[in-house]
Amino acid sequence: MKVSDILRLKGSTLFVAQADDALADAVAVMAEKNIGSLVVMEHGDVVGMLTFREVIQAIVKNGGSLGTLRVRTAMDDAPLTCTLETELDEVRRMILDHNTRYMAVMDKRMLMGVVSLFDVAKAVVDSQKFENQLLKAYIRDWPEKEATDSEDR
Predict the structure, then answer these.
(1) Helix boundaries (H) for the chain
(2) Within a domain: residue 152?
(3) Percent share of the chain, pLDDT over 70
(4) Looking at residue 84, which CATH number applies to its domain?
(5) What integer best gives the mean pLDDT of the chain?
(6) Kind and range of the H or E element at 51?
(7) Which domain holds residue 69?
(8) Is a pLDDT exceeding 60 seen at residue 150?
(9) Structural domain tally of the chain?
């Protein structure tokens, strides 16, 4: 399974913030849309990723408030990325190795979507469920054992 398969099932809705947006506005969008990340754009390019992890760190550094902070001050400016052709196993390895929950999906410099740890886990569970259904169907349709000489006795 590839990242393109996950995005096809997930849909193509993207939520982004601009690097110079107020951090409080970006957090409000995340809360309103019930999402854990925003891809950060500047001049049409992906320049970062904002997740609740970065938001919490920014609040702590700023004495417990968002104040006048900008997205640029809190975002991860070296976000993990993958392509549409990246295999699911590679995405899982990257997520675990980098202790991240969100990855921007890129096609050269174009943002194609975001995959989350949830998306990856759901894809794995759905794939296993489908495989289990196929195996159960195969077992139910198992051909009857033909009588052998030893059984006839």
Answers:
(1) 3-10, 23-33, 52-61, 71-74, 88-98, 117-140, 149-152
(2) no
(3) 92
(4) 3.10.580.10
(5) 89
(6) strand 45-51
(7) 3-141
(8) no
(9) 1
What average pLDDT does this structure show over 110-134? 85
Would 18 be classed as within a structural domain? Answer: yes
Angle between helices 52-61 and 23-33 (to 10 degrees): 140
Sign for the CA dihedral angle at 123, 125, 130, 135 comes to positive
Dihedral, CA of residue 141, residue 143, residue 145 and residue 146, to nearest 10: 150
Confirm whether pTM is higher than 0.90.
no
Crossing angle of helices 117-140 and 3-10, in 10° steps, is: 90
User: Is 17 within a domain?
Assistant: yes
Question: Residue 118 has which token pair?
Answer: 């949830």
pLDDT at 107 over 90: yes
With respect to residue 71, please indicate whether it lies within any of the assigned structural domains. Answer: yes
The residue-averaged pLDDT of 6-21 equals 91
